[in-house]
Every structure is written in C-alpha cells, then in structure tokens.
Write a structure and sequence with these properties.
heterodimer, A: alpha+beta, twelve-stranded antiparallel sheet, 13 strands, B: mainly beta, 13-stranded antiparallel sheet, twelve-stranded antiparallel barrel, 11 helices, 33 strands
Chain lengths: 229, 710
C-alpha cells in the first residue's frame, strides 16, 4: 500500500466530503457546482447558427433600447448579444442580454476591450490610450499597450506589448442598425516571444464598428461589433 | 446576413498564430529545472542519484517508487526556487530481524548554491535523511550542466550511502545506521563524514513525453546486501520516464543489474490553478454619480429613506452572498459592517461590497467605511473615498490599494449597531467526515468514516455557542493496537483508546465570548468540551494592529481529560506515565514576512507539563495554499520522549476555491507527523484569534489584492 498515494487520495476525499455537506447558510460550492465547473467553460448561450444569430440580433434591436453589440468568442464559437449596463467616463460595461444565472461582463473603451469578468484568467484592466488615439484617427504609427491579467495565485500579471498600427483599405459594414463605410486598421503587437494581431474597422467619426481582438490565451480572439450606438 | 460572421472566418487564420503562444506568467528565471524525480522522490533527471536540478518554484511532487521488497513514498516541495524539502516514508522488507517490514520516515533538504551559466554547471548541496535513523542518510555536492536543450550531464561527490561504493577517501568517522535508535534527531555527527566517492550520470529528453537516463551509482546498498535482500552486480542504472500527462509521470528503471523498479509521480503546483483568477460571475459595475449630485442632501430629511437604502444594500450584497450586519449613514459618510461567509479572498468581499454601495447609497455619501466582522467582533475597517472608487474602476489594481486605508474599527465613532433581528442566528451543517491515521507499522494507513452534525448559535455581541457530534459508520481505526510505552503523562499517546467507541461522540461543545478590550487587542474565552480529548477553559488575548505584520498572543488553558467514549464524562488524570497537569499555556509571536513566508513561535508549557518552544514556518501562497513545517523542543529528553525524539511535522492547506474555480472558504488541511507522542503536545481549541482575525487585516488583504476588482 502506498502511503503518499493514499494521502493524496485522502486529501481529495476530504475536500470532496466538504462538498457533500448540507447546511442552512448561503448556497455554497457543492458537489453539483463542482461537477458543472469541471465540464469546462459554460456554454449556456452558444448560438452558432447564422440564422439564429440574426434572429437574436433582430429581437434584441426590437426589444431593447440603448447601445447593443455582438461578441463572438472564437474558441467556443459562442455569439452573445451584449447590452450596455454601465458607463464610467470613456468606459462602457456590457453584459449578455439573455443572461441566465452566470454573470459575465466585458468592458470597452471606444470599442477596444479593456476588461473582462467571469471568463477565467480575466483581463482586469488595460491601458490602450496610445492605440486608441491612432486607431480612431485612422493613422499608422507605434503604440504601447498594457494588459493586466489575474493569475492562479490571485496576482496581477502585466503584459506590456509594443504594437505597430497600419491603415488598410475601406469596407462597408452593415450590421444591426449600423450601415457605414469604415477604414480597416491593423495592430500587430509583440511582447518578447509573444505576438498577436488586432483588427479594427473604424467609421468616419473615429468609432470602432467592428473588431477582432486578442483577449488572452484562455479565450483567444473575440470578434466585437456594434449593433447600435 | 450578420456582417460579423465573415470576420469570424477571417479570424481563424489569426487564431492559428495566437494559439501557439505561451501564456504570460511572471517570468522569474529559475535556472535548471526538471519535472522529473529520482527514487528518493526529489527533483532529479537521474534514477537513484541526485542532480543539481530543481523543480519549478512551488511545485509539489508526490511519488511512489518501488522495486522488489522496497517502497519509498515521498512528498517533495520546492520551498524556494533554489531550495527543496522532502518528507519520505519508506518500507523495506526483511531488512532487520525485529520487523518484517522496516518502516522509516526521513526528511531531506537540498539547496542550489550556484545557478547554471553559459559555461559553468549548476551546483547543489543536499542531505538525505538528515534527522532520521540514518538508514537512507547521505550527503552530496553535485554539479549538473545542460548541453543543448535535451541533454544534461551530472557529476558529484557523496557521503554516507552515496559514498559507500568505490570510495576514494574519507573525512573522519560516521556512526551510521542504528535501526533501534529513537531517531528523529539532527544527525550532525554524520553529516559529510566518513567515506566519499564519485557518482554521475546523464539524462536525455527524446521528445516532450519521453526521456532516458543512465547513471553510475556510488550507493553500495551495504545494509541490503549484508542481509541478503539485494544483489548489486554493477554500479550502472538505466531508466526511462514517460509523461502520461503534464501532471502524471511514469518511470521504469533497472538497478545494479539485478532489480527492475517502477515509479509514479504526481506533480501539482499551487501557482497553476485549474481556473486562474476564478470562474465566478462578474461583479456589478461601479455606479458613477452624475456631476453635481453629491451636493444633494435632500434624502437626509426623510427618515424612511435610510431604511430603503439598507434594504437595497442588503439585497445587492445577498446576491453576492455577503451578509449585511449593520449600516449607519450620516451626511457624507456611510459605515457598513459585513460578514463574509463566501469569499476566501477578503479583498474580493470588500470590492463587491463597495460596488454594491456605489449603486445604493445616496449621492451625497462620499466616505465609505466597510467593517469586516469575525466571530461577532469587528476585525478591521477599510475606508475609501467614493470618488476614488469611481475613478479607479478601470485603473491598475495597485492604484486602488494605494487609495484605501485600513484602521481599527474601534477608532471609528460611527460603527453601526447590528441590524435588528439579526441575532440570535443559528447555523448548522450535516455531512460526512473522514478521520485518518498514518505510519502505524502494522498498517501505514487507517481511516474511519461517518456522519457529523455541526451547529453554531450566535447570540450577538461576540457570544457564540457551538457543537459538533459525529457517528462513525465504517473504519478500521479501532484496530490500532500499538503498545503505549510512553514515559510521560499520556496526554496524546492514548489516541487508540479514543477511536475504539462505536457510539456517537461529542467532538466539541463550547460557549465562547469574543471581545475587543481596546484598540489593536482581541480577546477570547472558551468554556466547555474544547476538543475530543480535553474539556475546560481556554482564554486568549491577541495584539495585532490592522496594518502590522507582527502579532503577539498569550493563551492559558485549564483542562480535564475527557473519557475515552467522548461523551460528557472525564477520565482520571493519573496515567502510567504520570499525572496529566491541568494547566498549560503559551505566549506566541506571529510574523508575516510579506514575501510569501509566515512564521510563528510559541513558548510555554505544554499539555504534559513540559516547557519548551514550537517554531513553525509556512510558505503561504496568495491563493490560500500553505505548505509548512513545525518542530517543538521541550525540556523532555529524547529518551523520555521516545521514538522520534521530539515533536515535528509538516502541514498542508489546500483551498477548495483553487480546485473548483469559484470562491469558497472551505479548505482541506492536513498535518503529517511522523509520530504522535506526549511531549510537546498542545491543546486544540477552535476559533483561535490570530487565524480568525488576520485575513481581515491589511497585510493579508494586500497579498490577494488582485481579487479586489474581481
């Protein structure tokens, strides 16, 4: 009989036993929530079929007032209609329109994602002012962007990337209540061995209408588009 | 057609480049690391020999290595990037005539003196079994050099076991292995003494999963060869390791041309959480007041509006599973007291409370005071300006930390009363339990399992009654039949008697009063059935300023030993080893080094009436993991103490939130002691002040501050 193996199993067992208990307090972590979290990222709102997405977008435009957006997480191919729930200076915080019990949010600054909550390895805050000043005025140039993540030890890990922004061609974007000409701006970023690329489509007033943005290794790329300002 | 979908397709190309990227982690150069281990369970790319390689910082390796007649089970921890500690339980069949299997516990330490450079190898010094009976005792100086990124070559010089074959010199004499000694003392007479010889080897990573190694061993296996349980035909060993997953590694090896062995290693690193940062739902955003609204004090004329605010705050906090305990609003200041039964990082409870306050409080309120309650008494108050909260929501977390202050609640005049109807409050839980016993030579692991009902009743004002009753359902702890030969009053060594009952037992049943006599000082008095073996009175005072890393405590206990059936009765204090004294107590110093290490020193009188001190050192990760060791030396001689010579052990705390990815205060703690005897034993009282207070104080909150905005 291997003692340490048993110890490991015992530790797991003890932890498991804590889960099995019932009590009169707040609904705490229990065996069921653990089983759910073990299944991986929640996919309660996976809407991948284009017709369905279109229907959800149309419904949201009819039912809701105020700014709306659509985000697509590339790793899960999950399309979520976002509505704006708060503003703080230039920052807007969005959450899913048809949200169930799990609360997740995305914060943007003029269309650039600066924070996420509830996605794991969350982007806690960003400094994108240099990127934004170039992108919204549709100018090529260099920018430094800072993205801060929460790691497994509850520490903030800062990523500071040097980016080159280049102006590309024109596109017409027709999504939701939006129909306008845009200029495509590409941001190529490098931080040591890491590299990633963001693409923004910017309208004549400097607003980012559509974008592909690299969030994190956990969530990969997000496609964000405005449905209504 | 939704225009974004074409963009999604386009993004797939980009995805290919992004997915291949390594995720940013705080890059601290750690030098030559390996996830491999040797038969001793210590980080090494070789088979039976050590190397100068270290495991990644914080790594825990749990391994079992076996060859015919010999099993070593080892827990190794990378205490620092350059320091490894190991605890091992090994069993060798037919080694001595006294035992059919000779079980032995041993501790190792190894330190890397020099990191590898482009041209020079890494150099480490290590000691195996340095406080045990010396069966596995050996010391070494070893150098390892990587050549390219696949090949590593090691050469070293060893003493003890590692100097027993083909030695080429000697320093002094080495007393060596004595199977009948009490063991457990620092075997300083042995360290780097006696014969020394050379060992060496090489490891080669064939690919990401498979690696090979070969070594020249300097271990003659003298003890084993002498009693005829091992044949040593050559000094050469060969092995292969396969990584089944990143966390599970299997190895097979040949030893000295006569034995085949196998090893399994489970690696775990507290720094790598399955869901980094947690997968819990998003907090509510901070609500920003409109310009000019802060001047509006109209609400203050309407007394019913305060109640409406309290209801709104309570409702918001309830959604975040935080209890509102009290609320006081006056003009520009609000003071709330909360209980946090949910978030293991108090910073997160504070952050979520403040977010909710920003949505519920009248605009004129600018100063926010939040008091964290613990056991019915205020543990600390955090103050922040509401305009800073609004301004810093999207700023680096460190800016918010700089904007808050922590103070003793007693320095605030507006500390609110408890909400009406809050107390008395009954909490209960019912669930299974497991109780274990390790390292009994007759059966190294035993366990009982059963059901346990726990309840607490808070009267308010720091008065708490609590009890716990359990009923064993299955188990074999009652088979423990070790002869108790203790020469001391039998304060702990009668464990076997306490696990014989099949009836229900009262684990504890106490009434406690927590109080705040003055600023920076906390008090506790507990009366009743304090723990499974003792009943009586325990009183404690703690000095711990809110912003201090240092704390002092004093505790005095007056107890009577409980009957073995653990119901309401008492047993005689007279035991074969002497009379159990009633009084024990300690003065304690606690210090948080702030670099992840925490220490505690207790000096005083232990249960058996012995006087001495306990020193404990823990590595504490900000996510709640703790790995530590402690030792107690009292005025009891090694002979009086018996096997082990003095009390020592290692301990481990695993926060459940780390494993499941959502906040919870539940955790699993484990203490591994080579042996439990009567010297250096302490009373086990629930609700000791330091642990219930410190998580609300600035130093610990600052360590997990990353969770504040989460």
């Amino acid at each position: 009989m291997s003692v340490k193996r048993s110890l490991t199993l015992t530790a797991a067992l003890l932890a498991g036993l804590g889960l099995a208990a019932c009590s009169n307090g707040h609904k705490d972590v229990n065996a069921l929530t653990v089983a759910k979290s073990a299944v991986g990222p929640k996919r309660s709102q996976v809407v991948a079929d284009p017709a369905q997405v279109q229907a959800a977008v149309n419904e949201a435009l009819n039912v809701l007032e105020g700014p709306l957006a659509l985000v697509t997480f590339e790793k899960t191919n999950n399309n979520v209609v976002l509505r704006q729930i708060a503003t703080n200076g230039p920052y807007r915080t969005w959450t899913s329109w048809s949200q169930g019990t799990d609360r997740r949010s995305v914060t943007t600054r003029n269309g650039v994602i600066t924070a996420t909550r509830g996605l794991r390895n969350d982007l806690m805050s960003s400094d994108v002012s240099q990127t934004l000043s170039l992108v919204s005025s549709r100018l090529s140039g260099n920018a430094t962007r800072i993205q801060r993540y929460l790691d497994g030890e509850n520490q903030i890990v800062e990523m500071r990337a040097n980016c080159t922004i280049t102006r590309g061609g024109q596109n017409r974007v027709q999504v939701g209540a939006i129909d306008r000409m845009t200029v495509e701006m590409t941001e190529n970023c490098q931080d040591g061995d890491r590299s990633f690329r963001n693409i923004y489509r910017v309208d004549g007033q400097g607003r980012i209408v559509q974008s592909v943005q690299w969030l994190s290794d956990f969530y990969g790329l997000a496609v964000l588009q405005s449905l209504r300002y | 057609m939704v225009g974004g979908l074409s963009l999604t397709r386009k993004s797939n190309k980009i995805a290919l480049t992004a997915v291949a990227l390594a995720w940013p982690v705080a890059a601290v150069p750690e030098g030559l690391t390996t996830t491999g281990i040797n038969t001793y369970g210590t980080p090494s790319g070789l088979i039976d020999m050590p190397t100068a390689e270290m495991a990644p910082d914080g790594q825990l390796n749990t391994s079992v290595a076996h060859f015919d007649g010999s099993t070593k089970t080892t827990l190794s921890f990378q205490l620092l990037p350059r320091l490894t500690g190991s605890f091992r339980y090994s069993g060798t069949k037919n080694l001595t005539p006294q035992f059919s299997t000779y079980y032995d516990r041993s501790f190792d330490l190894r330190y890397r003196v020099l990191n590898e450079t482009k041209w020079a190898p890494a150099v480490a010094v290590g000691m195996q079994d340095f406080i045990g009976t010396g069966l596995l005792g050996g010391e070494y100086i070893v150098a390892t050099k990587s050549i390219g990124n696949k090949l590593r070559v090691t050469g070293g010089m060893g003493w003890g076991r590692l100097g027993s074959y083909n030695s080429f010199g000697s320093f002094g004499t080495r007393p060596g292995f004595n199977p009948l000694s009490t063991g457990g003392e620092f075997s300083t007479d042995d360290w780097f003494r006696g014969d020394y010889s050379f060992f060496g080897g090489a490891s080669y990573d064939f690919n990401d999963r498979l690696s090979f190694s070969a070594e020249y061993s300097s271990d003659a296996y003298d003890q084993e060869v002498a009693v005829g349980i091992f044949k040593r035909k050559t000094p050469w060993n060969f092995g292969a390791t396969y990584k089944v997953t990143d966390d599970v590694h299997l190895s097979a090896y040949s030893l000295h041309g006569s034995e085949f062995g196998a090893r399994i290693n489970f690696t775990l690193n507290p720094k790598n959480a399955p869901a980094p940062g947690g997968a819990e739902g998003a907090p509510v955003p901070v609500a920003v007041r409109s310009a000019g609204s802060a001047a509006d004090l109209g609400w203050t004329t309407d007394p019913s509006s305060t109640d409406a605010v309290a209801q709104s705050v309570e409702k918001g906090l309830a959604r975040d599973k935080i209890d509102l305990d009290g609320l006081q609003i006056s003009g520009n200041t609000a003071h709330v007291r909360i209980r946090n039964p949910t978030y293991d990082a108090e910073s997160q409870a504070l952050g979520r409370t403040l977010r909710n306050l920003s949505r519920s409080l009248p605009s004129s309120v600018e100063t926010l005071n939040v008091t964290l309650m613990a056991n019915g008494i205020p543990a600390s108050t955090m103050t922040i300006r509401r305009s800073d909260l609004e301004r810093l929501e999207n700023a680096p977390a460190s800016s918010a930390l700089a904007a808050v202050t922590f103070n003793d609640t007693l320095s605030y005049s507006d500390f609110p009363e408890a909400l009406p109807g809050l107390y008395p409050k009954l909490n209960w839980s019912f669930g299974p339990y497991v109780r274990t016993s390790f390292f009994d030579p007759a059966e190294p692991v035993r366990a009982d399992a059963g059901a346990r009902l726990k309840g607490s009743y808070e009267f308010g004002g720091g008065w708490v009654a609590q009890g716990s009753v359990s009923q064993k359902l299955v188990g074999n702890l009652d088979e423990i039949n070790q002869l108790n030969n203790s020469l001391l009053p039998r304060v702990r060594s009668d464990t076997a008697q306490y696990v014989k009952t099949d009836g229900p037992v009262i684990d504890s049943m106490t009434l406690a009063k927590y109080f705040r006599p003055m600023e920076d000082v906390y008090g506790r008095v507990t009366v009743g059935y304090l723990e499974s073996m003792y009943a009586g009175v325990s009183a404690e005072m703690l000095w711990k300023p809110v912003n201090s890393r240092l704390a002092f405590g004093v505790e005095a206990n007056y107890v009577e030993p409980r009957e073995f059936d653990q119901l309401f009765g008492f047993r005689s204090r007279t035991t074969p080893g002497g009379v159990i004294p009633r009084a024990s107590g300690h003065i304690s110093a606690y210090y948080d080094f702030g670099n992840g290490f925490h220490s505690q020193v207790d000096v005083g009188r232990y249960l058996a009436g012995d006087w001495g001190a306990t020193v404990a050192l823990d590595r504490e990760f900000a996510n709640g993991w703790k790995v530590g060791a402690f030792m107690t030396k009292t005025d009891v001689s090694a002979t009086q103490f018996g096997e082990g010579s003095f009390d020592k052990g290692i301990r481990l705390t695993i926060p459940l939130s780390w494993a499941v990815g959502t906040p919870t205060k539940k955790k699993t703690s484990m203490v591994l002691k080579p042996i439990t005897r009567d010297g250096g034993a302490r009373l086990s009282v629930q609700g000791r002040l330091y642990d219930s207070i410190r998580s609300s104080h600035q130093p610990e909150i600052a360590e997990s501050w990353g969770k504040f905005w989460r």
